[in-house]
């Protein structure tokens, strides 16, 4: 049906326009799907009406066909009564002509309705196929929309992170960190230097104590030698 072709063109045009204009594809697609859902409801109602009309027309055709057969049988029956002498032949022929006229009338109506039934059934079947196609496409487009929305969230988050990383140095953060790093390294070097100086002082003190201790021993040795040479005994 032309209505479905129009709906498809409208849906495609809206999506293509959104992409080409770089507008928000999610919002545009949601709007397009809302409109198509309403169109699907309208199309389903239209199909139901055509289907109902086809059923009513088919019932009317069946009734006309039945009436046509009934009047044909009545024409035969009235002539049989005339043959049996139950009805005057002239009167019977008059009634038979009226019955045959009605039989032809209902037969003609039955044939016309039969043609309408075929056309309505074909139209109904085509509308049903197109409605199912539209419904299937709606399901597919809604799934694609959910995927698109998920991708859009990930893309937005990634864009935000990358933007922050790109602007990180612009805000002086990296330079500040480098200065802090250099300051910490200077402090560590200074602490290390103080430690080495402290160790050097301790080493010098130890050497001095050792030297002084050695000198005292040497003096005692020299004094002892002199006393031995002079024969002076050590104090008890």
From TrEMBL:
Coiled coil: 26-53, 124-214
Keywords noted in UniProt: Coiled coil
InterPro entries xrefs: PspA_VIPP1
One Pfam family in the UniProt entry: PspA_IM30
Protein family per UniProt: Belongs to the PspA/Vipp/IM30 family.
Protein name, per record: Phage shock protein A (PspA) family protein
Organism: Chitinophaga niabensis
Taxonomic lineage from the root: Bacteria, Pseudomonadati, Bacteroidota, Chitinophagia, Chitinophagales
